[in-house]
Known about the structure:
CATH class of the largest domain: Alpha Beta
CATH superfamily of the largest domain: Beta-grasp domain
Number of strands: 7
Oligomer: single chain
Number of helices: 6
Largest sheet: 5 strands, mixed
Distance between the termini: 101 Å
CATH architecture of the largest domain: Roll
Shape: globular
Strand content: 15-25%
Helix content: 25-40%
Order of helices and strands: HEEEEHEEEHHHH
Amino acid sequence: MKKTPPAEPVRDDGWSRRLFMAGSAVAASIPLVPLRNAAVSAQGRPTRADQPEAIVLHINKKAYRLAIDTRTTLLDAIRDHAGLTGTKKGCDHGQCGACTVHIDGKRVLSCLMLAVMAEGHDVTTIEGLTGPDGTLHPVQQAFIDNDAFQCGYCTPGQIMSAVACIAEGHAMDDDAIREFMSGNLCRCAAYPNIVAALRQAKTKAERA
């Protein structure tokens, strides 16, 4: 006599393991239809991510009209499209601080921000700190005076972060400077000189 298999327990919602497996098999047999690779521009217009989007970025008080892929980061837009190569690409993952710029006066990691998100805002790069007559920003001068760099690759990001650190009121003492500059890495380990440069620039700002 053929034995009847024991009934599979059914959950309160009516699902059993057998029903779930059968449903999964049916779902797997349905062909997937590729979705359109769509995005939305800063102005709310639907657009394909792989189609150039015309945007205007205000960088260092100058307007740049760029036609870029909507997936382009602000860092790549600044370097590859606007031609301002002072901002450096380090880790490209927001961990080293080499790409630090200012958006409306606040420091931002440009590798983690899409260029279209910066439209309508004021972007400042390391090139924008120098005066019209070539006069260096006090922080730039302090980095030179204190030999606060060696290879110099991280220096633009260090300086941009240092300017913001002082403006934010976080350069109260050496410990605070180290804390609020900790997002900017220096492979050459010029950290003591960087701290000294911030102290000098802060003192000069207070006397101005």
